[in-house]
Design a protein that fits this description.
Number of domains: 1
Order of helices and strands: HHEEHHEHEHEHEEHHEHEH
Number of helices: 11
CATH architecture: 3-Layer(aba) Sandwich
Strand content: 5-15%
CATH class: Alpha Beta
Largest sheet: 9 strands, parallel
CATH topology: Arginase, Chain A
Structural class: alpha/beta
Number of strands: 9
Length: about 325
């Protein structure tokens, strides 16, 4: 990069004039907004707001996902200079995308957290903006779904995960990352008949009526056929996509709280996400990235790629 060019590329996370366009800054310097989007709380004219939820007090095993949003943002800087590979359009140039920053909450007041998160997402949705959330442990999907169901009615849930997270828990005030989809079905936030969980490889006898495409079925069918089956289940219903990074095998994503062998490969996940273009997706999240358990950064890299694919899926629906 020539010196004169470098002078014009000063931290686009703060200085970019437009919410659209690629960014050719050095990947190793500057503020780590997601994909070098502008940091702002102004939702005017915005299509997608990326926001971080650094919360991990609901975990049942290893903590550390409170550091996930920061790590995912940092990893995303490598993708920022180029249009996402394999898509027939460039969402970074066609759509107005911002980094809305992180939810601020009192870490010592856990009972207040769900309401604070729901209000945070409510603010985004009331501006007719879609949210892409960087977690954080998987409990965060529950208050987010409450906000989405208020706007769109019962959602189709597309969940990539090693676990169903539908273990029985009738105490709606408990904050637990393994029971929130049980509650979501019980509360009518999710329609199980038109929802699907992909990559499952742990035992839970009661799936609450949610369709399951377990990891073995993905391996046997192949990702293209699996994506076609997902599309058939979802139809054209309003869909919320949640991607627990432990859907990937620990070989690809070791930095997570509850790793399980036999999982999806990163290539399988990439193909399935790409082949889902055209589903009626309204929002999404990437959760359970725990940087302290991955010294290589590979898990955050995977999380950044998944988040970018979700962004592309959101944008595809906005342009059609």
């Amino acid at each position: 990069m020539a010196l004169e060019d470098a002078k014009t590329q000063i931290d686009h996370a703060f200085t970019r004039d437009s919410l659209r366009g690629l960014t050719a800054e050095n990947t190793f310097g500057g503020a780590t907004s997601f994909l070098r989007r502008r940091y702002t709380k102004d939702l005017s004219g915005v299509d997608i707001a990326v926001t971080g939820i650094p919360f991990d007090q609901a975990v049942t095993n290893r903590p550390g996902t409170r550091l996930g949003p920061r790590a995912i943002r940092e990893a995303s800087s490598l993708q920022a200079p180029d249009a996402p590979y394999g898509w027939p359009y460039d969402p970074l140039s066609e759509l107005a995308i911002i980094d809305y920053g992180d939810l601020a909450f009192d870490y010592a007041n856990i009972p207040a957290f769900p309401g604070a998160l729901k209000a945070h997402i409510d603010t985004i949705l009331q501006a007719d903006v879609a949210s892409l959330v960087l977690g954080g442990d998987h409990y965060i999907s529950f208050p987010i779904l409450q906000a989405y169901a208020e706007k769109y009615g019962p959602m189709s849930l597309l969940q990539f995960d090693a676990h169903t997270d539908t273990w029985a828990d009738d105490d709606m005030d408990r904050v637990d990352h393994g029971t929130m989809f049980y509650k979501a079905v019980k509360m009518g936030l999710v329609d199980p008949a038109r929802s699907v969980q992909v990559g499952i490889r742990t035992t839970n006898a009661d799936t609450m009526g949610v369709n399951i495409i377990d990891a073995r079925e993905v391996h046997e069918l192949g990702p293209v056929a699996a994506a076609a089956k997902i599309r058939e289940i979802l139809g054209d219903y309003p869909t919320y996509l949640t991607f627990d990074i432990d859907a990937l095998d620990p070989a690809y994503a070791p930095g997570t709280g509850t790793p399980v062998w036999g999982g999806l490969t990163s290539a399988q996940a990439a193909i399935m996400l790409r082949d889902l273009a055209g589903i009626n997706i309204k929002g999404g999240d990437v959760v359970e990235v725990s940087p302290p358990f991955d010294t290589t950064g590979a898990t955050a890299i995977a999380g950044a790629h998944v988040a970018t694919e979700i962004l592309c899926l959101l944008g595809w629906g906005m342009r059609s």
